[in-house]
């Protein structure tokens, strides 16, 4: 078995899995309790916040732990919209964003806000000029992801952030960083990003925990009312075992980023060269995309057929984003990029991890060539 679906979720580090078990067994006190067990848990929470902040290059008080990036994205978009409703009710995002962003924006529209959904080019990119042109006096938030989870398109988030701080400093800038952290460099402090969401399980951490970076000085309307945990932004008893494990995964992802990125780019190049030799396939990922995601289509064939053939050979890939892989309609991301319905209905995503080696890529390509031949014979 070779797992090529890291963009959906990642196998946890062994040390991270051990951390969950150890902390769960030994430090079960509620961090809000005043007795010794509670104080021990509170200290672990504080340390995890410090480690996470150091990995992101921000202040510990700017870290809000959540249940995952979907919650973080909802918190950012709705929290800004509700907090600044008196200033304006206009939001800007891109057509290829993750569902947790697009559906949050659509929900705000159903509640009376207005939104501009920016189109993308053939590579899936928006431009700084597009964002600038969409700004209105009543715009309160721009949300653009760092790396697209389906195609690996890298958006110019640093340039957008710097433009916003110069042209419209009162407009908040949110970035879904799920696919970018640990793969590409991004300075939150220098890029004008106000809000940045992450999910642990995309970084070889546990599922069910994430964070939202909230720039100091920015106030959000909380979505969850209750005991006032996480600075009042996210009430509910903190999941100490998962948060501690998440902070360890974050640290490991940050420390190994440069070497990981170099290796993944080398593997990506080997994979795309092999795909180019299969004339039946169409590569949808841009040449200058993220190091770990390669998306291609086999026009005229059902993606599920190719996926299951590869699975029979011991290779696990996906058809698109995990959040929409069970839907039968064409990929909305590929359609937004101008791809035909035939191409958008037959996509396969391969997403790499740091455990992969060149022989794994070669084995995948061999299985892919064999599967393509089998499908041709069935036509």
Automatic annotation (TrEMBL):
Cofactor: pyridoxal 5'-phosphate
Alphabetic keyword roster: Iron, Iron-sulfur, Metal-binding, Pyridoxal phosphate
Signal peptide: none
InterPro entries, per the entry: Aminotrans_V_dom (IPR000192), Aminotrans_V_PyrdxlP_BS (IPR020578), Cysteine_dSase (IPR016454), PyrdxlP-dep_Trfase (IPR015424), PyrdxlP-dep_Trfase_major (IPR015421), PyrdxlP-dep_Trfase_small (IPR015422)
Pfam families: Aminotran_5 (PF00266)
Domain of life: Bacteria
Family indicated by similarity: Belongs to the class-V pyridoxal-phosphate-dependent aminotransferase family. NifS/IscS subfamily.
Protein name stated in the entry: Cysteine desulfurase family protein
Organism from which the protein derives: Paenibacillus timonensis
């Amino acid at each position: 078995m070779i797992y090529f679906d890291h963009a959906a979720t990642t196998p946890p580090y062994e040390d991270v899995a051990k951390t969950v078990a150890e902390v769960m067994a030994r430090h079960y006190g509620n961090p809000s309790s005043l007795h010794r067990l509670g104080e021990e848990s509170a200290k672990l929470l504080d340390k995890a916040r410090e480690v996470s902040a150091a990995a992101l290059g921000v202040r510990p008080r700017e870290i809000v732990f959540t249940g995952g990036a979907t919650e973080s994205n909802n918190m950012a978009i709705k929290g800004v919209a509700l907090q600044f409703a008196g200033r304006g009710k206009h939001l800007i995002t891109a057509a290829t964003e993750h569902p947790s962003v697009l559906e949050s924006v659509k929900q705000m529209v159903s509640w009376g806000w207005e939104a501009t959904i920016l189109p993308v080019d053939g590579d899936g990119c928006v431009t700084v000029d597009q964002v600038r042109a969409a700004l209105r006096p009543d715009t309160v938030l721009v949300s653009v992801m760092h790396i697209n989870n389906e195609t690996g398109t890298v958006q110019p988030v640093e340039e957008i952030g710097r433009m916003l701080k110069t042209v419209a400093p009162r407009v908040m800038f949110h970035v879904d960083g799920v696919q970018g952290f640990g793969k590409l460099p991004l300075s939150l402090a220098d890029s004008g990003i106000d809000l940045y969401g992450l999910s642990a399980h995309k970084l070889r951490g546990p599922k069910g925990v994430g964070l939202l970076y909230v720039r100091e000085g920015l106030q959000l309307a909380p979505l969850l009312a209750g005991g006032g945990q996480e600075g009042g932004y996210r009430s509910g008893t903190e999941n100490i075992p998962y948060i501690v494990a998440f902070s360890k995964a974050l640290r490991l992802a940050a420390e190994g980023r440069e070497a990981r990125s170099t290796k993944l780019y080398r593997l990506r190049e080997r994979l795309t060269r092999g795909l180019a030799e299969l004339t039946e396939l169409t590569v949808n990922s841009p040449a200058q995309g993220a190091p770990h995601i390669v998306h291609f289509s086999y026009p005229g064939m059902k993606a599920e057929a190719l996926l299951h053939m590869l699975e029979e050979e011991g290779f696990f890939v996906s058809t698109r984003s995990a959040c929409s892989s069970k839907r039968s309609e064409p990929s909305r991301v590929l359609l937004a990029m101008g791809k035909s319905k035939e191409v958008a209905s037959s996509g396969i995503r391969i997403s790499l991890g740091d455990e992969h080696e060149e022989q794994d890529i070669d084995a995948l390509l061999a299985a892919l060539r064999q599967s393509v031949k089998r499908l041709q014979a069935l036509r």
